[in-house]
Amino acid sequence: MMEQQILALDAKYNAHRASKSPGFRTLYIRRRSQILKNFRSQIDPSLRRQYLKLRNQILNKKYGVNIEGSTYKPRSIGHRTSSQLTIESTASPGGVNKFSSQSSLRRDATGIADRTPDGLVPTWAAEATRAMAGHTSLGENYAFCGVYHIFDVHKSSVTTIKFAYDDLSKLASSSMDGSLAVHVVLPEPETKFVLKHPKGVTDFCWSYSNELIMSASEDGYARLFNSVDGSCIRAINSRSAGTAGNVSILACVFQPMNNNMIVTASSKGHIEVTNCSTGMTPKNSTVSIGCPVLSLCFHSSGNLLWAGDQKGYITSILYNIESGRLTRCKKTCVAENRPVSCISMRQWISREAREPSLLVNCAHNSLSMFRIISPDGALALRKVYPISHRSFKIKSIFCPIMSFRQGAAVVTGSEDGCVYFFNTDRSTKAIINKLQGHSSPVLDISFNYDESMLASCDAQGLVIIWRKEN
């Protein structure tokens, strides 16, 4: 739609507008969104196209920056062509680099597979895999054409944003203003309903059936809502931490193998399991970390849990699926006295990276990736990517679709107001895309299941939906 293209253009130049007044930039985007909605059907389409072209020229002249298509676009056509035609380097038995063309790589594919662990053909030599990926690079796959829509329902920072599981359209967002909003993105963006809490909502998660939403709040309660009509099914107090007024629930997660069980983490360092049906806590299902726990993440098997705390540590906890018993295991320091704000787990990142990994945001200006090296959740550092992160609860995600390209992508928010895409295979120049449109720190991001839409939220209450290029 033309209105979305106009709004996308404004969002792209927003980082250059009123650099000393981020509040004005947010207000400007909100007002532009309202004006475009009000006049959606009153302007001739041909005039809109002329307006879009003229406005692009005016903004380019005013700010001296020419922003093409996406806010940041990697090299595309030329890069793709050269990746298929340039020579590749392989090590010969004598230790000397032997260069061969793509045609000779096809002839030697069998030999390459024999020299690779598990007999796997490297991505750059695997013709079927490259055809499956459309012969595009990782950067080209994550190029976005701009802002699709802006939701402006929250009046304070948006703490968490998540698309429903295996869903193209359904999206939810929580805020420190005490609201939890459920939206649909397609076919027409719309906010279905807003659920109110007495205090700020620090976190939420969808059940795997998408029938329930569990929220965590500063008032000390975890609440279960029906995701269809917004009715509150149960409010669960953090029993082990005393009365609700003395504690905040900072993180929550459904048990992946049994969505009738939930795990919550509190500002007093308690992690506990609760049965949704009864509201009861099973025996031996509570552990204490000793400081506020900010993030939780389950292993996909459901028998292992990681908790990130205020002091910069990640603690692995064994979960007994039959009894709900929790047992503390390994402790890993990410950065001393720097809060761990987010943990994400992926069993298999790409066709060549089969090792289970954790993606960790810690407030020391970096995004870290760890390998899971033992059944009890011990971690070893794999990669570190620089981002701006010192004060806010920044979050990150693995891209949901396993990569069949060379490398894999992770996405993170940042306090400089940008959304960053990193290639996990690169040690240097790892940024493959950067989206600009927010005028305050980007706190969380979420993909829908086929990666056609990306949602991002910021510290001033805006939710931006980005659409991927076709």
Describe the structure.
This protein is an alpha+beta fold and 470 residues long. The protein is built from eight helices and 30 strands. The strands form eight sheets. Strands 3-30-29-28 form a four-stranded antiparallel β-sheet. A hairpin with a 6-residue loop joins β22 and β23. The protein is globular. The chain starts with a helix and ends with a strand.
Query: Which value, in Å, is the CA radius of gyration?
Result: 23 Å
**Which strands sit side by side, in order, in the main sheet?**
3-30-29-28
Strand content: 35-45%
Distance between the termini: 15 Å
Alpha-beta content class: alpha+beta
What's the mean pLDDT score? 80
Extended strand count: 30
- Tally the helices: 8
Low-confidence stretches: 68-117, 124-133
| Main sheet summary | 4 strands, antiparallel
Describe, in short, the structure shown:
The chain has 8 helices and 30 strands.
List the topology elements.
Layout: H1 2-12, H2 22-38, H3 45-63, H4 77-85, E1 88-91, E2 97-100, H5 102-107, H6 109-114, H7 127-132, H8 138-141, E3 144-151, E4 158-163, E5 170-175, E6 179-184, E7 190-196, E8 201-206, E9 212-217, E10 221-226, E11 232-237, E12 249-254, E13 261-266, E14 270-275, E15 286-288, E16 293-298, E17 304-309, E18 313-319, E19 326-333, E20 340-346, E21 357-362, E22 366-372, E23 379-386, E24 396-398, E25 409-412, E26 418-423, E27 431-436, E28 442-447, E29 453-458, E30 463-468
Helix pairs in contact: 1-2, 1-3
